[in-house]
Amino acid sequence: MSLTNILLTIIVIILAGAGIAYFVKKNKNAEIEEEIEKDEKTYTLEAMRDYVKKRLDEITKVNLYDIGLSEEELKRRKNKKYALKKALKGCTYGDVNDKRYVKELISDLLSKEYGVNEANISSSIPFDMPSLLTSQDKFDILIYVYKKEFGYEALTQLIKRYNLAILKYIQGETKPCYVITDDEIDEIYENEKIVLSFQDKLEVVVQRIYQHYKGYSTIDEIRDMNIDGVSGGVSGLPESFISQVAQTGTTDYIEQVSEHKVPRACDSIWIFFQGKSIRLAFLSFGTEAELKRVCQNIYKYNNPGQLSDINGYKVNTWDKVTLIMSYKNDKPYTEFEVEKKDGTIKSYQITPLSKINEDGTETKVFGIGVGDKEIRGFLPSLKFAFTKLGSIVSTMLLIIINLFTGKLSLSALSGPVGMYTVVKSAGTFRQLLYLTSYLSINLAVINAIPFPAFDGGRVLFVIIEAIKGSKVKPEVENVFHSVGFILLMLLMVYITIQDIIRLT
C-alpha cells in the first residue's frame, strides 16, 4: 500500500470519527433539550392544574367498595371522600374553611405525588427571576406575605403602607382617578425585598391553581379581605376612549374593541375601600369565559335545596323566607345575606332559640321580621296584589316539591283543625280577610295539582285523551280517582291527628 493510500485512509477515518462524534453530540443535546422542554411543560401551572383536577375527580368518584379495602380503611376513605366533596361544594360559595381544606390537599398532591420541589417549582412561576414576574405574580406574592403577618387585613395594610388610595393622574385619562397601576406594584415588590422559602413558593402556586379550578380567579384572595367589596367586568370603556370617539365621530371603535385595543369587560377589576372605588389596573380575568365562571359561582342561588353553606337561596319575599327557615338544616345556625337599598350586602349568622311550647313540642325562634308598608292608589295596589299572588303560588309549589324531596316533613302541614286555630288567632278583620284569601289561593293551587280526586287529575285525563285521540275507559279512570281519594283521606286523617296532638 502506497503512502498516498495510507494518508487517504487516515483522513477518511478522522472525518468519519468527527462525523460520528458530531451526530452523537447533536443527538445528546437534542435529548437534553427534550428533557428540559418536557420538564418545563410538566411543571407549568396549566399541567399541574389539570393533574389536580384529575386526581380530585378520581378521589370523589371512585367506588370504594370495588377496591377490596378493610373495614377500617373503607370507613377512613369514605370520610375523606365525603369531606372532600363537601369542601369542593363549599368552595363554590367562598367558605374559607373549605377553601383551606382543599388547598392543603392540593399542596399534598403536588409535593408528594406530582414531584414539585425547589428545583422545578420556578417552571410554574419564575420566583428566582423577578424581571420575568408579571404584576399579578408580584401582587399574589405580596398578598401572601402580608397575609402571613396581618391575616385578612393584608390588603388594607398594603394600601395604607404605600398610600395607594389617593387620586392620581394616569396616561390617557383627563381627570384624576383612584387606581393602582402595574408600575406601583413593581415598585412595591422591589422595595419589599421578599425572600421566599420553598413552602412559601408552593403556597403561592397552590393558590394560583386553586383559584382557577374552584376559586374566584384573580379576585379569590381579594374577596376574602376585610374591605368593602370587589367588582369585576362592569367598568365599561375608559373615559379617554369615549371622548376620542365623540370627537372623531368614527365607528372604528367597534373594530378596536374586538381586537382588544381597548379594555374589555373582563379586564376591569375594582375594589371598594373605605368609601372609594379603586381600579386594579394590573389585574385581569383574562377571558370573558373566566369572568362568566366566577359570576356564576358568586350568584349560584337559583337551584332549590337545603339552606346551608353548600346550597343557598335567593329570595325577595317574606313568604319564601319563612318557608326556607322551616327546612331541615343540619347546622345549629342559618346564614343570611341581605342586600340593602344602597346596594351593599351584609351577612348575618343567626342561631335560633329553642322554645318549648305548652304541648311539649319545640319551636325554633329566629327573632327576625319585616315591617309593614302601606300602599295607596289603585295601580300600586293592583301591582302589589299580583306580586303577592305570585309569591304565594310559587311558595305553595315549593312546599309541594319539598314535601316529595324530603326537605319538609308532613308534620309541617296543618288540616282543618290547624286552620281553625290559625283563623281563630286573627285579631282584626284585615287579618281575617288576608287569611281567607290565603287559604283560597292555597286551595286553588292544590286543586290544580294533577292528582287523583283533584280537578287537576281530571284535566290530566283530558290531556291524555287529547293525545290518544280516544276516551280512557271509565273503569280505569274510576279506579285511578278512587285510589287517589283513599290516599288523600288517609293523609287528611294523619294531618288531623297531628293537629289534635299539638292542641292537647
Describe this structure in words.
With 504 residues, the protein is α+β, with helices and mostly antiparallel strands. The protein is built from 18 helices and nine strands. The chain has three domains: 48-233 and 268-297, no CATH class; 306-365, no CATH class; 413-503, no CATH class. The protein has helices at 3-42, 45-61, 71-92, 96-114, 135-150, 154-161, 182-192, 198-213, 220-224, 239-248, 253-258, 288-298, 318-325, 378-405, 416-424, 429-447, 455-468, 474-503; strands at residues 167-168, 177-180, 229-232, 269-273, 276-280, 334-339, 345-350, 353-356, 362-365. The protein has a five-stranded mixed β-sheet with strand order 1-2-5-4-3. The protein has a two-stranded antiparallel sheet with strand order 6-7. α2 (45-61) crosses α8. The longest helix has 40 residues, at 3-42. The radius of gyration is 34 Å and the shape is extended. The N and C termini lie far apart (128 Å). The model is unreliable at 28-38, 235-239 and 301-313 (pLDDT under 50).
